[in-house]
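Chains adopt folds. We examine one example:
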Amino acid sequence: MPVIEVEVHQQLRAFLREQGEPDWPHHLTMARLVARAMRLGRSALIQAGAPAGDHGRYRLSYLMPLLLWQESAILVAPEAVLQRLLMVELPRLRQWITTDKPVRTGDHWHEPGLLLTTPQAWLTDRLLAQGRFPKNILTVVDGADHLEDWTRQLLTLTLKSQDWDQLQQQLPEQADQLRDLRVQLTRSIFQHPVNPYDRYLLEAPDCEALRQFTAGLKIAQSAWPPVWQQLSQRLQDNEQILWAEVARQQGQFSLHVAPATVAPKLQPVWAQQPVVLIGGALDLEADAAIFKQRLGLEDLTCVKFSLNRQHELLQLYLPDGLPMPNTPQFQSVLIQEIRALLTASYRANQGLTVLLIGDLPLKAQVGSILAGELGSRVQVEKTCLDESGILVTGWEFWRAHQAVLPAPHLLVIATLPLPSLEDPLVAGRVAVYKRSRQDWFRLYLLPQALAELQRAVAPVRGHGVVALLDSRVNHRSYGQQVLTALSPLARINYVDASLFMPFEQLMVGD
């Protein structure tokens, strides 16, 4: 074994023994993989597993080689992760090993050493060729699960009300045309039926009107406000999604433009330096073929670590015979099933219960019904909860707060988190897949849902129960892929009657 891999292995093994770290069986293997990538300058993609990805137990495995490696390196991670590394993990490691390697933070390169920076700073530099970070320096990206979202957010162009006013001031002779266009867009956008997302894809005539307006501006484009210059360029690209977000009370809207796929933008980034991409649950397969396609990744080493069946087993209640989510009967049966689960779990074990409901109207209805029956124990998307509280939440809130909330002893999932085609952004991306005759469900909707599902259940593994009340898992061809994503699991299709107590005994007055 080459010297750097040997040194990393020995130092990390001794450190783990000394510290008595919680058992994560892949520490040494992952550390050697990172060290090998550094020595060879070869990119790698590492799936650490959903629980490890959420709780960050794997981070010692890349910090040790980053500190021991004599060459410079860049570590890219979200701000919260960087703060924990700086306050907790790095001081512990630096007390253990002898190294004078400088560790710095910032949004640009200073001098040799280890630089810690955010995804926004690093991606902005790479995508816009700003030159703030040198090329050919090995870069470790922690949180690769979110790379696609980070990239699309950075590449989203927004046209606000003040941007229209600025253009009108700059081009007073075309004020009438600008006003007519703005009136046309306002009328068209506000004619859409209200949806839960308050955003709407721009219709083809509106997109064409925007193109014609920018093409007909009688002034050199270099004199336009920058946002209008970018908009004009984006309108020439058929792979862009255009949508409006509305503020109905104010009668205003903002326009947004973003690429439907980020792979063409990211592909040149990977050629600029060797990268080690680390995530929790990136793809069902070890070779991560779908993930690589969506991120524009090509030749790199792929490794996927399995979860520990003894310590990370998922207790999965998956009843059969429930109505399908798109049927009128689903809501009433869902409420009955939730009541039964709350009754059983209340007697079996005190602790937090989370009801994960992606459908916005259904989430509000379930929260209202249960709050009327169980009082203040039930909270809708709040973090101040009783010890035996019941949190009713959507996927986005749970994703943002699950790390700071107590691990639930019962997690009830109403439906699979398949992105909704009612969301204009989802519909826009699906339309692009359809135009290129690609399998939009297998390449987009299902991978998104499985990754979301794996992250959501991570805190419950090993000590709680997950109830998945979506019958599609039992009756659709992709159901087995859902079960594979949740593995290792022990599946039950009933709740022991001995755990039940009358639901009315739970009811409390406020």
